[in-house]
Amino acid sequence: MRIAVFGAGAVGGYFGGRLAQAGQDVVFIARGDHLKAIRESGLSIESLAGDVIAHPKLATDDPAEAGPVDAVLLGVKAWQVKDAAAALRPMLGPDTPVVPLQNGVDAPLQIAEIIGPSHAVGGLCKFICSVTGPGRIQHVGADPYIAFGELDGTRSERMQQFHDAFSNAVGLIAEVPDNIQAEIWKKFILIASWSGVGSITRSPVGVFRQIPETRQMLIDAMREVWCVAAAHQIDLPESDVDATMAFIDKLPESGTASMQRDIMEGRPSELHEQNGAVVRRGSAVGVPTPIHSLIYFSLLPQEMKARGLL
Q: pTM above 0.90?
C-alpha cells in the first residue's frame, strides 16, 4: 500500500516509520533540517518498543512530487490542518482517505470542508513521543496506539485495507473501532485536560496528579469534557472519566503533553483546538466549562505572543 505521511514529526514519523519498517511504500512529507536528515540517514526512532532507522521510499517537501497515494496520515499540529489539507491535494486519488492524528475534535470537519467529505475519516493516536533532533524521534511512554474509521461508523473496504497495512508493523496497536467519533471524544477527555492542567501548572503529570488540589482540578476538567460530549450526543459512559484517570496514573512521572511542551518553550500551540474547543463547544450547547475557561483565558496572552499577535 502506498501511504503518505504529511507531517513526519513525532506522531507521523513514528507510525510512518513503523509502516516503512513493515515493508509498506511510505512517502514522508517533511521540511527543513528534519527532511534533510531523513533523506541522508533515514528516520531514527528510539522507542520503548524497539529502536529502528526507517527509510521511506521517498522524502520530499513537495506533495506533487509524491503524486497520488492510497492513504494519507496527517501528522501536522491541529492549527495547521486546514493549510495542510489544501496542500495535500496532489496526493489524492478518487477514494484516498486522509486520516487525521491531531489532538482535538475538529480535524475531520476541517478536512471535509477543504477537500470534500469523501476524503474525511476519523483518526487518533495515544502515546508520548517527541522530536529530539533533525531526523530523530523518541517514544518515552504509553504503548503506541492508532485508531481510524469512517465518520458514519460503517465498515469500509478502504479502512480495512489501511488496517491491514499495519498487520506486520511492530511497536504499535492499530484498530478500527465501531464508533470512531466516540473514541475521538474519549481521547479528548484525556488530552485537553492533561494538556491544560500541565500547561497552567508548568508541571509533569507525575507532579500534578499527586497533589490533591491539582488532581481534583484534572478530574473536574475531564468531567467538563464528558458533559460537553454528552450534550453533543456523543455516546460515552460516565465511567470513561474514571478510566481516563486510571490511564493517567500509569503514565511516566516525567510525562508532558505536546501542547504543554510547546507552551513552555514559547511556541504556537494547540490551545485554541484543545481547551478553547472545549469552551466553544460547551458554550454552543449551554454547558458551563469553568476549568477549561480558566485555563484557556489564562494562557491566551502567551499564545497570542507566540503567534506574533502581541
A: yes
